[in-house]
Amino acid sequence: MLGDRGYDHDKYRRLVWALGVKPVIARRGTEHGSGLGTQRWVVERAFAHLHWFRRLRIRWEIRDDIHEAFLTLGCALICWRRLVSLP
């Protein structure tokens, strides 16, 4: 799990380890340049692409299964658009 400096606390690290996941959290008070930003950028970009769809930007659906269906459809459309744009 990748995390920024806001999650640099032993409590969060222990919770993540208890779930069996290795935390990679930037330390407070250290220099920038740990390399976490290059990996986190991919996730942030994916969220930005999903926010192109207004229905996903603001959750209008009450039922979880309907929201998940729109999320799946949004992911499929993003993948399709990227594949069509490849040379």
Question: How would you describe what is shown here?
Answer:
The chain is 57% helix and 5% strand. It contains four helices and two strands, in the order βαβααα. A two-stranded parallel sheet has the order 1-2. The longest helix has 22 residues, at 64-85. The two termini are 34 Å apart. The model has no long low-confidence stretch (mean pLDDT 81).
Question: What is this entry, summarized?
Answer:
It is built from four helices and two strands. Strands 1-2 form a two-stranded parallel sheet.
Helix content: 55-70%
Question: In one word, what is the shape?
Answer: extended
Largest sheet: 2 strands, parallel
Question: Which percent range describes the beta-strand content?
Answer: under 5%
Unreliable stretches (pLDDT < 50, length at least 5) are none
Spatial sequence of strands, sheet with the most strands: 1-2
- Tally of extended strands? 2
Overall mean pLDDT stands at 81
In DSSP terms, counting alpha (H) and pi (I) runs of 4 or more, how many helices? Answer: 4
Oligomer: single chain
N-to-C span: 34 Å
Structural category is mainly alpha
Q: Topology as H/E string?
A: EHEHHH
Radius of gyration: 17 Å
Walk me through the topology.
Layout: E1 2-3, H1 10-18, E2 24-25, H2 36-50, H3 54-57, H4 64-85
Parallel strand pairs: 1-2
Features:
about 90 residues, mainly alpha, 4 helices, 2 strands, extended
